[in-house]
Amino acid sequence: MGRELWSADVVYGGIGAAQGGAGQGGAGVAVQRRPDGARTVIAIDSLARLRQRFPDAVQAGHRSVLAPAPVNAHTHLDLSDLAFSPRRYEDFIHAVIAHDRAGRRGLPAVERGVAELRAAGVRTVGDIVTTEAAMARLLEDPHFSGVAYWELIGPDPADAARLLAETRERLLRFLGWQRPGGMQVGLSPHAPHTVSAPLLQGVTRLARELRLPLQLHVAESAGESELHRHGGGPLRQALGPWLPQWQASGRSPVRYLADLGVLAARPTLVHMVEVDEHDVALVARFGCAVVHCPRSNRALGCAVFPWSLYARHGVSVGLGTDSRGSSPDLSPVAEWRAAREVHGAAASPAQLVWAAVKGGARALGQRAETVRRGDPFEALLAWGEPVH
Q1: Count of domains in the chain?
Q2: Catalytic site positions
Q3: Bridge partners, 59 (sequence order)
Q4: Residues 54, 89: one domain?
Q5: Is the pTM of this model over 0.85?
Q6: pLDDT, tens digit, 9 for 90 and up, residues 306-360
Q7: Of residues 239, 270, 275, 240, the one with CA closest to residue 255
Q8: Same domain, yes or no, for 108 and 27?
């Protein structure tokens, strides 16, 4: 029985700003140990203030991060059997298409991805779903909350009405499979260039009608920007057979979505590395969240996410691993570490912890896990380290 003081580089209880980081002298958690051995959080604060408030507390240990479980806000569980291999973005797209045609995106791959998420301590996830079996599997899972986004691809405007009707029918069926406290149904029109303009607009209206969250891949590669602005480039060469009706808009992908009315539905935008200040200002104006996937971007030769630009405009950013084909694992803690390496002094460890917890939850329209005074100390996880 007595008080303990756990120190950490960063401590976050899921409320407000994370404590700690460079120049702040560290952070800590004051813990009350009861006669039965149970430990209860009594305060989260800077280490200096905790030492003043609880001078009798015994220093118990130090950890890098103490926080709730991080969120994986974007992944593709059905690509868990696609071998990780750094390559050009366009080559990766061809590998995904070949993997799909080989019939390797089925339920066994999803099960392996689910097992990996659980082993990584993930409890909240945003997954892109391509089969009804996978949708049923995720919606019935008692372990996860988050969003299962049904993926939609349809670049030919002539197919828009049919695809929209089929999607509506599916979504209404999926909504009947939801259970309280579990994953929710969402909708993912794949990308601005793989979903025709009329289908994008129809899907946006459908999502608003059914109150479904939206998630899109946007501005992931330089080739995507070239495709939208000028109609050519490496992505057009790679996807030419699948984009026979494509016509460049002369705008960035973000501006294109804004002009179609898609951003007004506040979709979550994934990747968002090929952007300028005007794009980010649009995202901020419409209140869209963004998901950052640093390891995937690095593996596929994409640009570096402009963290400072998003921070200056107050855009909420979460972290996601993308698929096993473009990341070595599905751990959001590993993604957090990669983001620290990529951004250096531009993003403090505390900011990135906030992104991995609160930012990821916001990207999925979920409430972040919180740890408050009176909660069990074990609700705070030592990211990548055991707590003894």
Answers
A1: 2
A2: 220
A3: 5
A4: no
A5: yes
A6: 999 999 999 999 999 999 999 999 999 999 999 999 999 999 999 999 999 999 9
A7: 275
A8: no
